[in-house]
């Protein structure tokens, strides 16, 4: 992880649960470097624990670069992330960044395929929120893998985006079998598939080496997906990747 020389003390504005495991934190008081951020970049965060600053942890900035408040959207994992839902407005934080090259120049790509696993959706939410602001006309196909529908915390927002952007969303729900009740004819750009994202489904949606591919999720999911894309003759090196392990 990059050094934290650029740490500056910010403040929590509000804390919003997205679902039982995922929380968004809105932050103000950041330094000017964050005003030049691009969609999909991340910051490192320290919180006060037992009267001392914690170690720094990386999180994608999940809002659009145009938004005034920084937003991070964090899933409970270990000790640090379990403390996040207990943050209160006014609490101090230390942020450093923005960092990272994932999604750099994505606005110049005509046909975009985004593949997200769980909370790995955050850089794509940032990009799509930005695309919404600038009324982008890129053709976007988003596959989002979760265990169950309730894990797909931003699904209502994505659903609305399919009406404003040239966006199709495919929810892959690995632990669900009966997904038909989720379909909504008013939103033909959103579909639901039981099971994991597979080669057949990629083919069915016309994914090919001609698209610009972006992949973000936990390491086992990334490995699996690169294997499936390889079977479509897509070179793993041509896929832009963000790895959430740290
Ligand atoms: C660039 C980047 C962007 C990220 N963006 C987000 C985001 O937007 N939202 C979000 O929720 N998370 C994001 N993460 C992941 C996040 O940083 C970690 O989940 C968090 O720091 C874990 O801290 P913790 O103390 O709560 O958990 P820890 O106790 O440190 O670990 C949590 C779990 O991960 C396992 N683990 C620990 N280290 C590793 C490792 N090196 N590789 C694989 N597994 C490990 C542990 O066994 C444990 O089960 C991002 C990571 C990176 C690198």
Overview of this structure, please?
The longest helix has 13 residues, at 122-134. The model has no long low-confidence stretch (mean pLDDT 95). The strands form two sheets. Strands 1, 2, 3, 4, 5, 6 and 7 form a seven-stranded antiparallel sheet that branches. Helices cover 19% and strands 34% of the residues. The protein has helices spanning 79-83, 122-134, 155-164, 199-204, 219-230, and strands at residues 8-17, 22-28, 42-49, 52-53, 57-60, 70-75, 92-99, 111-117, 139-146, 166-173, 190-194, 212-217, 240-243. The chain has 246 residues and is of the alpha/beta class. It contains five helices and 13 strands. The chain has two domains: 8-99, Translation factors (Elongation Factor Tu (Ef-tu), domain 3); 106-243, Rossmann fold. The N and C termini lie close together (8 Å). It binds flavin-adenine dinucleotide.
């Amino acid at each position: 992880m990059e050094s934290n020389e650029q740490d500056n003390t910010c403040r929590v504005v509000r804390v919003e649960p997205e679902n039982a495991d995922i929380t968004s934190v809105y932050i103000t008081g950041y330094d000017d470097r964050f005003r030049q951020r691009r969609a999909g970049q991340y910051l490192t965060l320290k919180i006060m624990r037992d009267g001392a600053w914690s170690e720094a942890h990386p999180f994608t900035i999940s809002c659009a670069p145009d938004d005034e408040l920084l937003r991070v959207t964090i899933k409970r994992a270990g000790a640090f992330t379990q403390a996040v839902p207990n943050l209160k407005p006014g609490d101090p934080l230390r942020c450093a960044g923005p960092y990272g090259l994932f999604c750099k120049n994505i606005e110049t790509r005509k046909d975009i395929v985004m593949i997200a696993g769980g909370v790995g959706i955050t850089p794509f939410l940032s990009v799509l929120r930005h695309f919404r602001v600038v009324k982008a006309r890129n053709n976007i196909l988003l596959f989002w893998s979760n265990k169950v529908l309730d894990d797909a915390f931003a699904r209502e927002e994505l659903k609305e985006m399919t009406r404003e952007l040239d966006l199709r969303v495919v929810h892959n729900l690995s632990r669900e079998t009966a997904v038909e009740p989720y379909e909504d004819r008013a939103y033909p750009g959103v579909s639901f598939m039981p099971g994991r994202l597979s080669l057949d489904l990629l083919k069915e949606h016309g994914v090919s080496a001609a698209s610009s591919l972006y992949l973000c999720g936990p390491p086992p999911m990334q490995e699996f997906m690169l294997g499936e894309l390889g079977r479509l003759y897509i070179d793993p090196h041509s896929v832009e990747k963000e790895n959430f392990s740290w």
